[in-house]
Amino acid sequence: MRLVRFHQAQELIAAVSGGKNSLGCDVAGNIGGGVYAMLALIREGKGRVWKSATNAFLPSVIVSAHNIDCSRGPAGHYTLVEPGGKAFFLIPACVV
Questions:
Q1: Nearest to 52 by CA among 81, 22, 74, 78
Q2: Is 49 helix (H, G, I), strand (E, B) or coil?
Q3: pLDDT string in tens for the chain (96-residue length)
Q4: Which 3 state secondary structure label does DSSP give 48?
Q5: DSSP H/E element including 94
Q6: Are 78 and 58 in contact (CB under 8 A)?
Q7: How many Å apart are CA 80 and CA 96, to the nearest integer?
Q8: Cβ burial, residue 18 (10 Å; 0-12/13-18/19+)
Q9: Strand partners of residue 95
C-alpha cells in the first residue's frame, strides 16, 4: 500500500506547474491518480479546500464514504462535503 500511496503522491507533485496563485499556493493541473493523495491529506486534516465563490478556505470538509468496497453495488465513492451539507467533489473508490 505504501508503494501505491507513493505513486499517487508522485502524480500529485508532477501536476504542480511551478506557478503560484495570489495566496502563494502551488497551482496544479490535472492531478489524475493524485486525487487519492489529496483525499488522504484532507482526511488527515493536512489539506485545505479553497472555495472560489467566497474567496476563502472552507473551515472544514467532511469526507463521506459510500459503498467503498463495492459490496452493495457496482460502484463506490468518497464525497467531499462543505459545512452546510453541500457536496462538491466525488472521488471513485471502486468499480466492479
A1: 22
A2: coil
A3: 889 989 988 998 898 877 888 888 888 888 888 899 999 999 999 988 989 889 899 999 999 999 999 999 999 999 999 999 999 999 999 998
A4: coil
A5: strand 87-95
A6: no
A7: 22
A8: exposed
A9: 75
Query: Residue 69 has which C-alpha cell?
Result: 468496497
d(C-alpha 48, C-alpha 61), whole Å: 8
* Rounded distance between C-alpha atoms, residue 47 and residue 37, angstroms: 10
Q: Distance between alpha carbon 46 and the CA centroid of its chain, in Å?
A: 11
Sign of the Cα torsion 87, 80, 4, 96 reads negative
Measured in degrees and rounded to the nearest 5, phi and psi for residue 41 equal -60, -40
What is the SS3 assignment for 70? Answer: coil
Closest CA to 77 of 64, 86, 88: 64
Instruction: Please name the amino acid found at residue 91.
Output: I
End-to-end CA distance of the chain: 20
